[in-house]
TrEMBL record:
Gene3D superfamilies: Glutaredoxin. This is Thiol peroxidase. GO terms for molecular function: peroxidase activity. CDD domains: PRX_Atyp2cys.
Amino acid sequence: MRENITMGGNPIKLLGNEIKVNDKAPDFSAVNKDMTPFNFSELKGKLKIISVVPSVDTKICEFQTISFNEEATKHPEVVVLTISVDLPFAQQRFCVANDIENSIVVSDHRTLDFGMKYGFAIEDLRLLARGIVIVDKDETVKYVEYVKEVATHPDYDKALEFVKTLL
């Protein structure tokens, strides 16, 4: 549920369609770190963790991205996709500085296609709210967390335990 989401304790409004468990995962386009196009359909048939962060330049987003990158090495059959609205140049710099090599990091800055189709776009800020979406090999959403306070961590353990049930 994405009701009563706050950022710094202040209520925010999320735009787009709320994604729910058992929804068919919408395809979306974004931009890779090297400025090439990315389409979610490229990952079809794979188990996917979508890690949604407002900006890789914040401590919680940094921790979230690094943590899921480390988890990706433990489960090579799982694709970890981190998405933010950071410019691809900033994402590239962040990934190099933090040895992010096992995850795919993409930018939704151009069209907010992901943000609108999955309901993570924050009104008036052009940022994404924090959360996690897990999509199975059949492209069905199996897990969704819209973090209630954007400035806090998602429930990493719960999400990762859930992934193990899908392996």
